[in-house]
Design goal:
Pfam families: ABC_membrane, ABC_tran. It is built from 22 helices and ten strands. By secondary structure, the chain is of the alpha/beta class. Bound molecules: adenosine-5'-triphosphate (ATP).
Length: 618
């Protein structure tokens, strides 16, 4: 089950929540005003007991009905004012906080687009989805409710106690005693709840990943009759999540009971003590009524602290999870030193920039790999690099086929050209310019790629293909037609809405060969100077393959291309062939030359049965 690295130690909740400040800043005035309004409304509720005191000691004791009606009217007005103020508070914060949530989600999405492929290899998509949905909702809810009410309730409790002390300091002291055990219990609760909240949110991410995989892989699930095992995996994860939610509920129930029971006991003790004081004539009956009313009015602010803290804790965890992604380093445009990480900078200005640099500038054209090595960032220590000191040159206008056994690193090599991964050592140049020093946008405008696994988006056929064209391409319709013709993708004309037909999620409504042809059309639509094709014809029948090859031959004439090939028919598109073996370029030549001189190549091209990996003659 894919999981995501969790930091060894969680930062404090307050520090986590403070990271929200840049987003809260623009709405701080509204939040502050809303808090002031809520505090006013909450304090109004504390005035009610004082009106009651006035009524008991005044009009009620004097049997004055007019005074009682007046008191009742004041109480009604206070109630209405409190309700209206709380309504205004909600109106003030709802809209800006929805905007804040949208802004955070927008930043997360933009950042995800700019994170390197290596990041996406490591992180499960469900973890990212849950961070962009559930976690951000928790953050918005925190800003909308607990943040304000922790301040409001804290202030209400403070003001309430000031009034209580003003009424009778001894009774007030009795009510203050529970603060000590409650503080200890709350701090214990907070630390335990933080761990459970983090676990639950990570488990939601894992569950999302599983659901996503099951839905996307529904054909495999059904084809192999894996419903039960998938359902079992789902059930196990659901049960884990349920267990964690129960732990949270138990913790919350515990703190809720303590926060409710302990102050109730104190109020009971104050009631007994107060009654004795009234009997002794130390305080008036009105004072005792007011005192107990205030104490009861403070019950909700005190009791609510438990779940306000729980919600804050969840928001702190959600904030941590959000920033864990945002803190990941984006793809760098130009690595430190202006080149690939291990390339030594010349110390002597008289020395050439690169000792391997050809003297004749004409020789610098095309696509060159110079001493390129690559190792996946997460590969184990001691494992040899996937690519080891690759030197290769594809001349301008030339097509080079890359052949090698399964797992030899062909896809990896092609991924280095558009900088989906950064070389570990060495450099790659396009017409003499190091790609590491090129702005990515320019690089990706120069280089077009079609991968072995064609990925399409939930958009129309036309939109999917034109993704490969530069923004503002003149006559996009004509370019689209040309690209579809090259890729032999005439089938789109017979789709219900032609090029405007939606292809569904990941293009799964199309056949594998149809998707591959659209991916190929996308690669050629922008008339790229450099074309990288990773076995682009693997899913086509021999007749369509022959047609695509014929059209592709025309395209390849105008571009410099690197084509991964598994079959002789694809190899024949190329001017020369390079054999990748053991992470190195073992041989370069024409197909015929290599067939004659290289046993491994001849074996790979012969289509002899074998598993491929490591099963070829050396
Ligand atoms: N993201 C990754 N992280 C770690 N290792 C990887 C990753 N992708 C590929 N590899 C490893 O790199 C090696 C080369 O893989 P690559 O996909 O480049 O081979 P290939 O020659 O294209 O294979 P095929 O012909 O089957 O497509 C393999 O051993 C593979 O397990």
């Amino acid at each position: 089950m894919p999981t995501t690295p969790v930091p060894a130690k969680a930062p404090s909740s307050a520090r986590s929540l403070l990271r929200l400040w840049p987003y809260v800043r623009p709405v701080r005035a509204r939040l502050l005003l809303a808090a002031v309004i809520a505090i006013t409304a909450s304090c109004l509720s504390l005035v009610i007991p004082l009106v009651l005191k006035w009524m008991v000691d005044g009009p009620v004791a004097d049997r004055d009905p007019g005074g009682v009606w007046l008191g009742a009217l004041v109480l009604l007005l206070l109630g209405i004012a409190e309700a209206v103020l709380f309504g205004i508070r909600r109106w003030l914060v709802s809209r800006p906080l929805a905007r804040l949530e949208a802004a955070m989600r927008g930043d997360l999405y933009a950042h995800l687009q700019r994170l390197p492929v290596a990041f996406h290899d490591r992180w499960a998509s469900g973890q990212l989805l849950s961070r962009g949905t559930t976690d951000l909702m928790l953050v918005r809810m925190f800003l909308q409710f607990p943040l304000t009410f922790l301040v409001v309730n804290g202030t209400t409790i403070l003001v309430g106690f000031i009034i209580l002390f003003a009424q009778d300091w001894l009774l007030a002291l009795v009510l203050l005693i529970p603060v000590v055990p409650l503080t200890v219990l709350i701090s214990y609760f907070e630390s335990r709840y933080a761990l459970a909240a983090r676990r639950a949110q990570d488990q939601i991410g894992d569950l999302t990943t599983l659901v996503e995989e099951s839905v996307l892989g529904i054909r495999v699930v059904k084809g192999f009759g894996r419903h039960r095992s998938q359902a079992r995996a789902f059930k196990e994860l659901s049960q884990e999540l349920r267990g964690t939610e129960l732990v949270k509920a138990r913790l919350l129930a515990g703190i809720w009971s303590a926060i409710t029971v302990i102050p109730e006991i104190a109020i009971g003790a104050a009631l007994v003590l107060g009654t004795v004081q009234v009997a002794d004539g130390d305080i008036s009956a009105g004072t005792l009524v007011a005192f107990l009313s205030i104490a009861l009015a403070l019950r909700w602010p005190v009791e609510s602290i438990g779940f306000l803290l729980a919600m804050s804790q969840e928001a702190a965890t959600a904030t941590d999870r959000y920033f864990e992604v945002l803190d990941e380093e984006r793809e760098r445009d130009t690595p430190v030193g202006g080149g690939s990480p291990e390339r030594a900078e010349p110390t002597n200005p008289a020395e050439p920039t690169n000792p391997a640099e050809p003297a004749d500038p004409a020789d610098r054209g095309g696509l060159r790999f110079e001493g390129v090595s690559f190792r996946y960032p997460d590969s184990a220590e001691g494992v040899p690099p996937v690519l080891d000191r690759i030197d290769l040159r594809i001349r301008p206008g030339e097509t080079l086929a890359l052949v090698g056994s399964t797992g030899s690193g062909k896809t990896t090599l092609t991924a280095l050209v558009p900088r989906l991964h950064e070389v570990t050592a060495g450099r790659i140049t396009l017409d003499g310019e190091d790609i590491a020093t090129m702005p990515r946008e320019r690089l990706r405008a120069l280089v077009s790629v079609a991968f072995e696994e064609p990925t399409l988006f939930s958009a129309s056929v036309g939109e999917n293909v034109l993704m490969g064209a530069a923004d503002g391409t003149a006559a996009p319709a004509a370019e689209l037609d040309r690209a579809l013709a090259v890729a032999q993708a005439g089938f789109v004309r017979s789709l219900p809405d032609g090029v405007d037909t939606g292809v569904g999620e990941q293009g799964l409504s199309l056949s594998g060969g149809q998707r591959q042809r659209l991916a190929l059309a996308r690669a050629v639509v922008g008339r790229p100077r450099f074309l990288v094709l990773d076995d682009p014809l693997s899913a086509l029948d021999v007749h369509t393959e022959a047609l695509v090859e014929a059209a592709l031959r025309e395209v390849l004439r105008e571009t410099t291309a690197l084509v991964v090939a598994h079959r002789p028919s694809t190899v024949l598109l190329a001017d020369r062939v390079a054999l990748l073996s053991g992470g190195r370029i073992a041989a370069v030549g024409t197909h015929q030359e290599l067939m004659r001189t290289n046993a491994e190549y001849a074996w790979l091209m012969s289509g002899s049965t074998g598993t491929g990996e490591g099963n070829h003659p050396r």
